[in-house]
């Protein structure tokens, strides 16, 4: 299976990348990134990863769309906090980049492809509002992107699904993630927040390892009869998956 990844230098994306590398079913990983991957990334050595450096996510090289359309799935974890961004800036990063990728795939041939559809897994977040009524920038624009993906016609031959993780933080098992992805203030806050959220509000907590595993399994076609996965549904599915594996 050939997989496209974005956002791999972020907290969600790096864990998805790590999970994809360890999954024998995935034979090719193509990463779209604004720059070469930094040396601090704690990823197992592998020979199945290719990095495509894109200076502009709204302007692909002439042959890239065709190459991407030859893949089986994508996990789109590219994103940025809405704090400090204008509506225009946040829309460009969240909606425009995403839909340019999807539209480029259609133009490059997914519409003419037979067999299994291209699976597109969008990492959104709890609180996203597809109705567009929310006053929160994050909720409104993430929701607008979700709606556009769900409105893709069958003729696109792209099957979109949406993950809505809750609070998550880089793994303590990978200190370089925490040091490079989150500020010292955020790390200090997490030491306080994670135990509280896990204990008192477990529905609002997503273990980062679960996020990576769920994204990759969804990209492989598991749970393909569903489109929207709020945090509670993600955790329910993973619990069932682990129970089934333990019974083998």
Contiguous helical run count:
8
- Major β-sheet strand ordering: 3-2-1-4-5-6-7
Percent helix range: 40-55%
Question: How many DSSP E strands?
Answer: 7
Structural class, from helix and strand content? Answer: alpha/beta
Mean pLDDT: 93
SSE run = EHEEHEHEHEHHHEH
**Dominant shape:** globular
How many strands, which pairing sense, and closed or not: the largest β-sheet?
Answer: 7 strands, parallel
| Rg over CA atoms | 17 Å
Q: Proportion of β residues? A: 5-15%
Pick out the low-confidence regions: none
Terminus-to-terminus distance: 24 Å
Summarize the structure.
With 248 residues, the chain is α/β, with parallel strands linked by helices. The protein contains 8 helices and 7 strands.
Explain what you see.
This protein is of the alpha/beta class. Helix content is 43%, strand content 15%. It has a seven-stranded parallel sheet with strand order 3-2-1-4-5-6-7, with helices on both faces. Strand 4, helix 3 and strand 5 (118-123) form a beta-alpha-beta unit. Helix 1 crosses helix 7 and helix 3 runs parallel beside helix 4 (137-150). The longest helix is centred in the middle third of the chain and has 22 residues, at 87-108.
């Amino acid at each position: 299976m050939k997989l496209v990844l974005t956002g791999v230098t972020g907290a969600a994306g790096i864990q998805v990348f790590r999970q994809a590398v360890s999954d024998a079913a995935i034979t090719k990983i193509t990463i779209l990134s604004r720059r070469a991957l930094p040396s601090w990334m704690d990823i197992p050595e592998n020979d199945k990863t290719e990095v495509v450096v894109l200076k502009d996510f709204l302007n692909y090289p002439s042959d890239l769309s065709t190459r991407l359309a030859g893949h089986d799935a994508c996990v789109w974890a590219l994103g940025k906090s809405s704090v400090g961004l204008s509506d225009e800036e946040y829309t460009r990063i969240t909606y425009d980049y995403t839909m340019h990728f999807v539209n480029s795939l259609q133009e490059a041939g997914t519409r003419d492809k037979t067999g299994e559809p291209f699976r597109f897994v969008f990492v959104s977040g709890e609180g996203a509002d597809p109705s567009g009524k929310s006053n929160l920038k994050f909720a409104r624009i993430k929701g607008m992107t979700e709606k556009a993906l769900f409105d893709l016609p069958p003729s696109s031959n792209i099957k979109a699904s949406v993950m809505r993780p809750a609070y998550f933080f880089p793994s303590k098992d990978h200190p370089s993630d925490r040091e490079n992805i989150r500020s010292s203030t955020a790390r200090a806050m997490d030491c306080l927040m994670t135990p509280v959220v896990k204990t008192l509000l477990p529905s609002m907590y997503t273990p980062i390892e679960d996020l990576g595993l769920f994204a990759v399994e969804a990209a492989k076609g598991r749970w393909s009869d569903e489109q929207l996965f709020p945090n509670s549904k993600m955790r329910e599915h993973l619990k069932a998956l682990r129970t089934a594996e333990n019974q083998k």
